[in-house]
């Protein structure tokens, strides 16, 4: 009798063991997949939050060099930097791929003397706002209107679609990676609005191409801001608002408060144009993010989730969310989309 019940039990055990083992294996696998996926997400966040190569103010580190070196002086730049080819040009600067001690660097030079003031303001901002959000400064020469920065071979954000369509990077052309770029972009706006020196507005932004041309795409697919020439300071508590230039702005890319409010019959006069604040940058976030998200599998789903926050960005200035609120929302949506895209797979597996 005892033997019989033992036989039954061991029979049941034998029957149960393979499915239990299989289930355990599946759970283990699911955990592994989840860990892998989430560690990837957090790796990107971590990578974006730590500055492993940062040097103290006035110093820089280049490539594999271990030491922090002082910013190059006029003499060093004139002696040691060799121009190779023109890689970009805007209204204020001509930018040359150049060589310094066998390293590729970017040398920016003033295009015309009338814009000296903008050039020097951009340089001051570059010096003051050095951080992971801003292109690395290697040296400058005020007398000769030259600035030396880190060279980014992918160039400005305008090149994003071309780069991601190259066979080499096609696999990186995902909604996930593109959403990370949008998060990078909003992080930069957040940094400019909350910098140690106060609230700055990115004024060189009258149309989408213009905005994109002020940012660079790094080889590790991050975004840094490069052109800080038109960066006025807002100080609301002191009642100090700004205007982006002295000319009339037009079109529906700029925020409504940047447009001439007195109709076509009254000619534009800078002195009558009301000033505004950093909320113009918030108005432009949905358009820039839409470009960054592109047209890949899943980017429309991201757009759907961003709908409410993007509607809020297009409200009147006082009703728009802060960059911090947009950033928090973007991060929450990314985390929930990652969870959603992992969970159905794990359910299928079970
Ligand atoms: N460090 C860099 N690496 C690669 N390309 C750059 C770099 N800096 C600028 N460029 C290119 O030069 C263009 C013009 O630079 P920018 O600083 O915006 O000049 P401007 O002040 O005249 O608008 C950029 O849009 C980009 O294409
Ligand atoms: Mg520019």
TrEMBL record:
Topology class, membrane: Single-pass type II membrane protein
Protein's cellular compartments: Endoplasmic reticulum membrane
UniProt entry tagged with the keyword Kinase: yes
All copies of domain Protein kinase, residue ranges: 81-350
Superkingdom of this protein's organism: Eukaryota
Residue ranges crossing the lipid bilayer per the database entry: 20-38
Pfam families documented for this protein: PK_Tyr_Ser-Thr
Top-level class of the enzyme under EC nomenclature: transferase
One of the GO biological process terms: protein O-linked glycosylation
Keywords attached to this entry: ATP-binding, Endoplasmic reticulum, Kinase, Membrane, Nucleotide-binding, Signal-anchor, Transferase, Transmembrane, Transmembrane helix
PANTHER family: PROTEIN O-MANNOSE KINASE (PTHR22618)
Primary role: Protein O-mannose kinase that specifically mediates phosphorylation at the 6-position of an O-mannose of the trisaccharide (N-acetylgalactosamine (GalNAc)-beta-1,3-N-acetylglucosamine (GlcNAc)-beta-1,4-mannose) to generate phosphorylated O-mannosyl trisaccharide (N-acetylgalactosamine-beta-1,3-N-acetylglucosamine-beta-1,4-(phosphate-6-)mannose). Phosphorylated O-mannosyl trisaccharide is a carbohydrate structure present in alpha-dystroglycan (DAG1), which is required for binding laminin G-like domain-containing extracellular proteins with high affinity.
Protein name: Protein O-mannose kinase
Organism: Varanus komodoensis
